[in-house]
Each structure stands twice: as C-alpha cells, then as structure tokens.
Amino acid sequence: MLLNPVLRERMQMLFDLYKAKYPNAPQPKISQTVRSRSDQNKDYAKGRSAPGPIVSNAKSGESLHNYKPALAFDVFFTVDGKYSDDPQLYKALGELAPSVGLEWGGTWKHPDMPHFQPPNYTWEDAAKDVEPTFGPIVAPQQPAIAETLPEAEEPEQEEES
Questions:
Q1: What's the pTM value of the predicted model, to 2 decimals?
Q2: CB-based contacts of 155, cutoff 8 Å, min separation 6
Q3: In which element (H, E) is residue 76 found?
Q4: H-type helices in the chain, by residue range?
C-alpha cells in the first residue's frame, strides 16, 4: 500500500480506535490508496461520457489518490461475506476521524463515505508539493449510533462427534 507515512499512521490509529469501540462490528478494510490518472479519468467519465452513475467529481490529477505516495485512502466493510454500503458503518468510522486528525469525506457537500484524507488539504496543495498537515490527536467522543452497528459474522464451528 503506497500511502503517505503520516497518513498511514493515522489510518492505523483510526482502525485501532474503531476496533476498540466496536469489537463485534464488521471492521474496515482498505479498498484504495493510489489511483492511476487513467483510472481517475475512467471514473470521472462514468455517468458523463461513459455509461453508469457518476462515481467521481474529480478529473485526473484532481484527486488525492492520484499522487504517490497516496494522500487519501478509501475503505469498505463486509457483512456476511458481502460488500456492505450500510451508512451506519461508515458514519461510525467517520465520526472517529477528527479524533486522529483526519478529514472524512462523509461530511462533504457531495459525501464520499469511504474517503479519508488530511484535513483542509486539496489536490492543488498536492500538485504544488505542499506537505500535508494533520489535525491533533484528541480523545474521541462516543458516537450515538454504537448500539445499532451490526455484529461481525461468527465463523461456524464444527460439532465434535
């Protein structure tokens, strides 16, 4: 995974914090760090000049995924072995992001629920080789939705004969 080293540390802090708060819930996994400019153009074309729904508002070079090392990461969850787009899972993780000095895309005008990056950092900053800064690490507050998160699936155990 090619990810900015400080961002990688903050990502791990976020995952550890989530696991401590929600040990029985599905755990986040990384879906993407670096995205090629070619793939970014393909994503941008979707819903515009290519079939399908719009999946990105960023053209090539206008995403923090387009820089090496990556300056953003996306996550996903699985429930019962299948991809889950349950917004409660993303919200529970996203609400913890400020406590480890990260910005969550779920708070944007056009929400990007799986996306995390350095706060107040833009692709224009990345294009100018401006180093990202991260927010302070603070004690998190308990998210209000903790009780509603689905539990992780338990592996089936074989009965002894």
A1: 0.85
A2: none
A3: strand 73-79
A4: 5-21, 37-45, 87-94, 123-127
- Report d(CA 78, CA 141) in Å as an integer: 25
The full set of domain ranges for the chain reads 5-137
pLDDT digits (tens, 9 = 90+) for 83-95: 999 999 999 999 9
The whole-angstrom separation of Cα 146 and Cα 66 is 34
Distance CA 31, CA 54 (A): 18
5-137 has CATH 3.30.1380.10 classification: yes
Q: Are 102 and 118 in contact (CB under 8 A)?
A: yes
- Residues 35-91 pLDDT 10s: 999 999 999 999 999 999 998 999 999 999 999 999 999 999 999 999 999 999 999
Residue 161's pLDDT band (boundaries 50, 70, 90)?
A: very low
Tabulate helix, strand, coil % of the chain (nearest 5): 30, 15, 55
Distance, in Å, from the CA atom of 114 to the CA atom of 104, rounded to the nearest integer, reads: 8
